[in-house]
Amino acid sequence: MLRGALRRATTAVHRPSTFFQPAISTAIRTVATTRSAQFSLNTGATIPALGFGTFQDADAQEDAVARCLQAGFRMIDTAQVYQVEEAVGRGIQKSGVPREDVFLATKLWCNTFHPDDVAASLDNSLRTLDTPYVDLLLMHYPVVFQRGAEPFPRDANGRMILGTTTFVDTWRAMSSLLQTGKVRAIGVSNFSQGEIQTLIDETDVVPAVHQMEVHPYLQQRAFNTWLRGHGIHVVQFSPLGNMNPFYRKTGWSKDIAHTTPPLTENALLLDIGRKHGKTPVQVALAWGMNSGRSVIPKSVVDWQIEQNLAAAEIALDAEDMERISTLDQRLRFNDPSADYEYRLYSDLEGIEGTKDGKTH
Question: Any idea which residues carry the catalytic annotation?
Answer without folding.
Answer: 82
